[in-house]
Specification:
The protein is an alpha+beta fold. The radius of gyration is 16 Å and the shape is globular. The termini are far apart. The mean pLDDT is 87.
């Protein structure tokens, strides 16, 4: 999916607004990462790198499972598909965590 398609999908989520989207994903055309949740950058070689904001104004490349190797993607579609999957994983995780917490509260 393209970055435009990614933004459309995110805006279609329940409760999503343009105000939420702006600090969540970005694709700056100047090639400099900005501190948002997920920032897509087209590298000089034509590859795409996803940067993740740390919530404190910092930003660093998303990495492979080893925690050191930056994730690079051959196409915008591949990078945006990864961002979508990552965001949905966290969304599902937070939902499960919230449900688990409320189930524990109700059981006591």
């Amino acid at each position: 999916m393209t970055f435009t398609q990614l933004k459309r999908r995110l805006l279609a989520l329940p409760g999503a607004t343009a105000a939420w989207l702006a600090p969540t994903v970005a694709f700056p055309q100047d090639g400099r990462p900005i501190p948002v949740g997920y920032c897509l950058i087209r590298d000089r070689g034509g590859l795409f790198t996803v940067y993740k904001g740390d919530g404190r104004g910092g930003v660093s490349p998303a990495t492979m499972d080893d925690g050191a190797t930056p994730l690079t993607f051959a196409t915008e579609d591949d990078a945006c598909t990864w961002i979508w999957a990552e965001m949905m994983w966290w969304r599902d995780f937070e939902a499960r965590r919230a449900t688990g917490a409320s189930e524990k509260t109700e059981a006591t």
